[in-house]
Amino acid sequence: MTDTILDIIQRLAPRPYRTTSNPRSMYMMACPLPDHEDRQHRDGGGSFSVNAEANLWRCYGCKAKGNTVTLNRILIGEALHPYNGPVQRRSAPKVRKTKLAPLEGVTLAALASAKGLDLDYLLGRGWADTRYFDGAASRYVPAVYIPYFDTFGRDPQIRYRIGLTAHDRFRWKFGSVPRLYGLEALDRYLQQPGPLILVEGETDQATLDAHGFPALGIPGAGNFPPAWADLLGSDVALWVEADAGGNALMTTLAAIIPELRIIHAPATAKDPTELAAKCGPLEFLGILRQLIEAATKAPTVLARAHGSTPTPLRRSSHRARAIYFQVST
Length: 329
Known about the structure:
By secondary structure, this protein is an alpha+beta fold. It contains eleven helices and 14 strands.
């Protein structure tokens, strides 16, 4: 009597098996073929099937198949095992990680020199050299510590300048809450003649303040909550930089501050700091006064540009002012 596949396995490579209701794979077990371990395959075992009626076998793991003759020859070493190698598991699609560029780093002296600002003036406002950890490069880079004080000159919220010319130039210290830059001088600003000028960033605010103009710095063109408008008084002007961020900021503030006036940057300089660097102090004062006199009401500017006037947003009473003037206990 000819041995069945089960007989050959039990004689040459005994192992447990289970029965199924499928006649084409009535018996399932771990593959008995040499050099093949079912653990290499995702099913973890039981990949060898036996069709008892047809006396055929097949391994769904190593893809070998045959009849009683081929199985017997493989198990007694007369034939090579037709094992095709481990099944390649289907892995999840790889997510391409964006490689972060290393931070540029900047010192206070380099920043002051590049922006034409007096180093002692910046030191007097609390700016200082520090270090910032660059996770992408696993190293520390030089950075500038910039404190954003409240209206009492207290409670500094810290922003770091981590680059001079790179696109990635700023970081807030963990836990710091963004606010307008220059609030410690707000009372003095509101008593000065002329508009309170809003500019983008700390260096432009420092440039205007150093030249005697009342100004507050906005920490990013996309960062101006409506509640901040309650701090500003009734005469407010915005220096609009000639780029997408400047235009977006103008549209946002025009909806919050209906009486806002727009100072258009001259063609030769995008911001006050660049303008001051290109001319002497007296010339800068003259040009800036001319720009302020030529400032246009924001609704008029937007109507010309878009054919419509933005709907003013209601200010939040004096909630923001109360927050900034509240004394911590």
